[in-house]
Automatic annotation (TrEMBL):
Residues 255-276 are annotated as: Disordered. GO terms for biological process: methylation. The lineage of its organism: Bacteria, Bacillati, Actinomycetota, Actinomycetes, Kitasatosporales. Keywords: Methyltransferase, Transferase. It comes from Streptomyces gottesmaniae. Its EC number is 2.1.1.-. This is SAM-dependent methyltransferase. It holds the Pfam family Methyltransf_19. Coiled coil: none annotated.
Length: 276
């Protein structure tokens, strides 16, 4: 693979000059820590260790979410024929980022990442490392600006062609459920028929220990993340055709041959839907 990257457009990168705040933990950096990444600070490690002390299963949830993302992207490329991806709220790069998984099967795939964390921007070059046949780009924008995201993404993606919208662990940061649904609707409105929505989010109704730990974390003053009932996660797919097996706990979504033992449900649910 060669560096087939484009520099983030300063017109859509207002956070580029923001200083990374290392005095408070950040969810993207804590998640990176749980995944075994190195892009975090002592404050993030302390918060991650405290959370894991109260609920050790959080590391399994983080890694299961990443494994689901890998399987679902591979399915979209190899089975559904998708060649364009819009990954909103991508977080910090670790192993098997969206473009790496997609371009492994289809080197011509094109990927746009969206985030507004200044530390993610600082690592944009790693995210932009593409195959020569394809392309990647990074857009510094807020989840709350769907139309701006779509306009910026259109500089790299042909939004008249089917595109997979990826929202992985980001909608729980939107406190009001109806606002989160509206964001999803507005993003999908800019994508054509035959596009896909790929979501996985922390859920309620499967693991009470996880729910207690997350509720306690939300009271610490850190940026909160709200677990939602499974029917609300399913509600994000209203108007779409859900691919089998529907919205399920992520280990149960097309487990692959590398899965050891019988997959067990966890408090993280996901699914993929097709826009008619």
């Amino acid at each position: 693979m060669t560096d087939h990257a484009t520099t983030p457009d300063p017109a859509v990168a207002p956070a580029a000059k923001e200083k990374v705040d290392t005095s408070v933990p950040a969810s993207a950096r804590i998640w990176n820590y749980w995944l075994g990444g190195k892009d975090n600070y002592p404050v993030d490690e302390a918060a991650g260790d405290a959370y894991a002390g109260a609920f050790p299963g959080i590391v399994t949830i983080a890694r299961s979410s990443r494994a689901y993302l890998r399987r679902s992207i591979r399915h979209l490329v190899e089975v559904e024929g998708v060649r364009q991806f819009l990954d909103v709220g991508t977080g910090l790069p670790t192993a098997d980022n969206t473009h790496q998984v997609a371009q492994r099967s289809a080197p011509e795939a094109r990927i746009v990442y969206v985030d507004n964390d200044p530390m993610v921007l600082a690592h944009a070059r790693a995210l932009l490392y593409s195959s020569p046949e394809g392309a990647t780009a990074y857009v510094d924008a807020s989840l709350y600006e769907p139309e701006r995201i779509l306009e910026a993404a259109s500089r790299t993606l042909d939004l008249s062609r089917p595109t997979a919208l990826i929202l992985s662990g980001i909608l729980g940061h939107v406190s009001e459920y109806e606002e989160a649904r509206d964001i999803v609707r507005r993003l999908l409105a800019g994508l054509p028929s035959g596009s896909y929505l790929n979501i996985n989010e922390g859920s309620r109704g499967t693991d009470p220990d996880y729910e207690r730990a997350q509720d306690a974390y939300n009271e610490t003053g850190a940026v909160p993340y709200f677990l939602r009932p499974i029917d609300q996660i399913t509600g994000y797919f209203d108007g779409l055709d859900l691919l089998p097996p529907g919205v399920v706990s992520v280990p149960l979504w097309h487990p692959d041959d590398t899965t050891t033992g019988e997959p067990k449900p966890i408090g993280q649910h996901g699914g993929v839907g097709r826009k008619p």
